[in-house]
Amino acid sequence: MKHTQFDNSSGKSTKIGSVDEDDSPNPQSSNHGSAGVDILTLDQAFERLGGFSYFQLWASSLFIWAFTTGGCLAFAFSMLEKPPKYLCFNKDGTTYECKADQTFCKDPSIKYKIDWDDPTSLHNWVESLDLTCESASRIGMIGSMFFVGYMSGAFTLPRISICMSRKLNLTLVLICGFGFASLGRAAIGFLYMQEMTPDKYKTFIGSFAQISIGITPAILALYHLYITKDWLPFQAFSAFTTLLVTISIIALPESPQYLISKKRYDEARKSLETIARWNRYDGPIDFKFKDEDQALLQSDEETYLKQNIPYQDANKYESANDQNQNQYTTSADCDTLQSSRQDRIKLKEPNQNNSGSIKEILKQKQHACNLFIMITVWIAASFDYYQLNFQMKYIKGDFFTNILVAALTETIAYIVSGYLVQKIGIRRVLIFCYSVSIIGGLMLIVFQDRSQGYLIPFSILLARFGISAAYNICYLVSAVIFPTVFAGTAFGLCNLFAKMTTIFSPIVAEAAAPIPMISYCLLALVPCILANFLILDGIEEKQDKNKKRTEIISEIIPE
């Protein structure tokens, strides 16, 4: 397709080159603009600088480690709050296994001791914080406070990331408390990492980051089984390495995708220069970005239209644009087609330069609907995922076996979910994952008293697989469903509502069985239904709008 540059002084047009409309990231076939300057998408630019090379390897490793260390506290709650094995004394001096809330907490005259020979008796917060006789609701509040901090971050940090650079914002939040900074790792850090990664590696890197989090409970279980029962050394190590990650971020450049979305193209090229040095690329970075080229064409062609069409027709043209902008919040980009040696105008609709605010999202029916559904999907995934984590200490069977089965299952779920998203689509994979989690939850209700055999581990496997896969998909598809300019706001809103409800998951986990698993199943059922209504294409509607606007312009400028 040929672009035409308009000469405003003469009212004539001059071809400046051929621009391929295909956005496929083929670095060998770049487009060319005026003066032979290459016009590339960001993904093509990444491929030219070496693709997934030294910089991407270092940045991805850095953030993946940050995700892992962040999980060292979030996933340790079931071990940090697990009561040890108590032995109460009979009058004859013999002992029997007892529960604190049913014996010596009610009757202080009953003598007891902790069975430190039992592998599940850990030196954790029950001992350090004297939680032995605390009520279940008070113990649940410890985990809830983590999500209060997370929710505070979800309310502010992703929205700030739209106005403030990804790099600076991420540095600030990692210095904050674990709960507050967890949003920096989970949302802003994840977006930053994905924006620095070529498209064809994003699913793999995103899934690998989630896998690193998923194996954290297994590492903690093996640590307590074979190294020490003391909780402090491991948590001190994770806190120290988080500090190292914070310092390392100083060497990273700003996200070029963020800069391009803000039309700061020169700064985006400087960011790519830093990436090029890391990747040992010595070639010039003198290309233009496709968005940048389209913005220049739009400016030239709209000026030509205003100067060369009658006043009343110009009003009609502007009215058509205004109506379309209210529908899609996009700006008109004029693309010319050479037909019978005369210029015929066809209008396209790239994203308008907007603030990415909640108001902008709600103006668009498709994004507003998807936002509501994704908030529901996030709420169910987050609440059920963490509730299952907190409840692990109460599920019958061997504690460490259940933890290891859950961690292994979660790792497999992260690998499989990324593959399933590409093969069967977002709607179907969400329905499948939540259905599997519901089946696992129902089995845990039915077989809750079976402490022997494989029924409990198998039930945990299904429940954990389904909800872990759904949680991973939430991260993988959010950047796909929403445009870049809305991604930070949408991510923040989903996290905000998810963590607002997840505040209560530790408290629900402390309730008597089968209440926790009933709530688990009911909550998973809602997104299983709503996922059918996700609007993932919108292509026909958009093409119809393009056709309508093209017909209006055809009336103004006949062939």
UniProtKB/TrEMBL annotation:
Which keywords accompany this UniProt record?
A: Membrane, Transmembrane, Transmembrane helix
Q: Which Gene3D superfamilies match?
A: MFS general substrate transporter like domains
Give me the Gene Ontology terms describing cellular component: membrane
Classify the source by domain of life.
Eukaryota
- Mark out the compositionally biased spans (Polar residues): 1-16
Q: Where are the transmembrane segments?
A: 57-77, 139-158, 170-192, 204-226, 232-252, 368-387, 399-417, 429-448, 454-473, 480-505, 517-539
Its recorded name reads Solute carrier family member 5
Q: What is the lineage of its organism?
A: Eukaryota, Sar, Alveolata, Ciliophora, Intramacronucleata
The gene coding this protein = Contig2503.g2692
